[in-house]
Design goal:
Layout (H helix, E strand, L loop, with lengths): L4 E10 L2 E11 L4 E5 L6 H8 L7 E6 L12 E4 L13 H6 L14 H13 L15 H14 L4 E5 L7 H16 L4 E4 L6 H4 L2 E6 L1 E6 L1 H7 L1 H12 L8 H7 L6
Parallel strand pairs: 3-7, 3-8, 5-6, 6-7
Antiparallel strand pairs: 1-2, 1-4, 8-9
The structure holds adenosine-5'-triphosphate and magnesium ion.
Length: 261
């Protein structure tokens, strides 16, 4: 079976800065792949490149059998990292989730009963029914995350890309999102998700990737978590005082004042 994502020696540069340096991996149908790595390790870059939003510099990348930019509209759902979204945008919960249907509408078609039903199902899945008329500006961080996941579900994609959907959400919402995503994966939907939460990787993912511009490890989440591949980057960051610091820059500043003169 052709893999959903096929990457070989994938290199992505922003001008002369190399954000991804030779990533090689496959994502198979019906598989959830987690991506962990410190801040700036290229997780968002990887997802954006797969979504066709960022161009690769070299290497091979096939997504759903095509060049990323040639994949049929609506086939890839991409949920961006929450801080990259403009939350002052004046729209209701319903509007945002219904937008998930737009790539699927033919230009001569109206938003039809089937589109309303898919929007409602997506809201139901993330437990946001009853909040349809709320402006998104008035939602909590966890509710905003759920709305964006719902928009992706309403799209009925063939590949779901999630960029740290659990950052800043409470444990109940995290579990609810996990149940939604695991159900979709069981139904055959392939998922790639960036996360910082190493403690829950086993319950979310079938495989886990440790990324630090290069793929340092990929495999069974337990084995990869136990391999120390991720711990070693963090260790390296702390002992060598590199500027890429995971999670708590303020705390790290205090511990390593010498790295910020
Ligand atoms: N549009 C851009 N132009 C230039 N450099 C960029 C751009 N986007 C990202 N970068 C740089 O590329 C590197 C990888 O960024 P990326 O956002 O992929 O990391 P990340 O692993 O998602 O980090 P985080 O955990 O903070 O979300 C960083 O050094 C970042 O500064
Ligand atoms: Mg990111």
């Amino acid at each position: 079976m052709t893999p959903v994502v096929h990457a070989r020696d994938l290199v992505v540069r922003y001008d002369d800065f190399v954000a991804l340096d030779g990533a090689t991996f496959d994502l198979n149908a019906g598989e959830a792949l987690g991506v962990v790595g410190p801040n700036g390790s290229g997780k968002s870059t990887l997802l954006k490149t797969i979504a066709g939003l960022v161009a690769r510099s070299s290497g091979e990348l096939r997504v759903l059998g095509s060049e990323p930019r040639r994949v049929a509209m609506g086939s890839i759902a991409y949920v961006p990292q929450v801080e990259s979204v403009d939350w002052s945008f004046p729209a209701t919960v319903w509007d945002v989730v219904a937008m998930g249907r737009f790539p699927r509408l033919q230009f001569w078609h109206r938003f039809a009963a089937a589109d309303r039903a898919a929007t409602a199902r997506a809201l139901e899945a993330v437990k946001m029914r009853g909040l349809e008329h709320r402006p998104i500006t008035e939602l909590s961080g966890g509710q905003q995350q759920r709305v964006f996941v719902a928009r992706a579900l309403a799209q009925e994609p063939q590949l779901l890309l999630l960029d740290e959907p659990t950052t800043g959400v409470d444990a109940t919402t995290e579990r609810a999102l996990r149940d939604v995503v695991r159900n979709l994966v069981r139904g055959g939907l392939p998922v790639i998700m960036a996360t910082h939460d190493l403690d829950t990787v086993e319950s979310w993912f079938d495989r886990l990737m440790v990324l630090d511009r290069r793929v340092l490890a990929i495999g069974n989440p337990r084995d990869v978590a136990d391999s120390g591949a991720y711990a070693s980057i963090r260790e390296h960051t702390h002992t060598h005082g590199h500027l890429r610091i995971d999670h708590a820059p303020h705390e790290a500043h205090a511990l390593h004042p010498e790295i910020h003169p």
